[in-house]
From TrEMBL:
Entry function: Accessory subunit of the mitochondrial membrane respiratory chain NADH dehydrogenase (Complex I), that is believed not to be involved in catalysis. Complex I functions in the transfer of electrons from NADH to the respiratory chain. The immediate electron acceptor for the enzyme is believed to be ubiquinone.
Keyword Mitochondrion found: yes
This protein's record includes keyword Transport: yes
Any one of the GO CC terms: mitochondrial inner membrane
Protein name (Swiss-Prot/TrEMBL): NADH dehydrogenase [ubiquinone] 1 alpha subcomplex subunit 8
């Protein structure tokens, strides 16, 4: 990508945010409940990215997603740490690709804790595949105007002289 002097690039301070310090197994263990807990922030971020087609304009929405994830995993640590760690270790050590099927017992324990203490039910199968309408407070972006090129070749006027083709017409059946 070519960058010109007129292009705005965010500073490092604008991009710096506290990251979620978890590996794959804990992220996978908490994914379903996290998706429910931070659904609004995630949908807002994805709507922004799809509508504006420019990641620089969605930095604040991305920061909100990360902040929500930090809040969620801190709440899990405070309320359901033992169950979460047990389920995460099961996912990590039972298979090479974090299969859920070998950890259904520990999953049920975590689901019960999340429902009782955090009031978050595990969404049913296919919940995240369904289309949803997201209400946002951001204004709808202006539709992109078609590109206008001022040096485009003008059309011939209707009264311009038209000579016959030197070697005949490709559309000889219309003559």
């Amino acid at each position: 990508m070519v960058v010109t002097k007129d292009m705005y690039l965010p500073t490092e301070e604008e991009l710096t945010v506290e990251e979620v310090p978890l590996s794959s197994a804990p992220l996978r263990a908490g994914a379903f409940h996290y998706g429910k807990f931070c659904e609004n922030e995630n949908n807002e971020f994805m709507l922004c990215r799809n509508e504006l087609n420019d990641p620089r304009k969605c930095i604040n929405e991305g920061k909100a997603v990360t902040a929500c994830a930090m809040t969620f995993f801190r709440n899990v640590k405070n309320l359901c740490e033992k169950e979460f760690v047990q389920y995460s270790n099961c996912l990590d050590k039972s298979s090479q690709n974090f299969d859920f099927e070998k950890c259904r017992n520990t999953q049920a324990v975590l689901d019960k804790c999340m429902a009782d203490k955090m009031n978050i039910e595990r969404p049913e199968y296919g919940y995240y595949c369904r289309p949803k309408v997201h209400a946002t407070s951001r204004p709808k972006p202006e539709p992109e105007k078609p590109a206008v090129y001022p040096d485009a070749t003008p059309y011939l006027p209707d009264d311009a002289p038209r000579t016959k083709a030197n070697y005949g017409s490709r559309l000889y059946w219309f003559n």
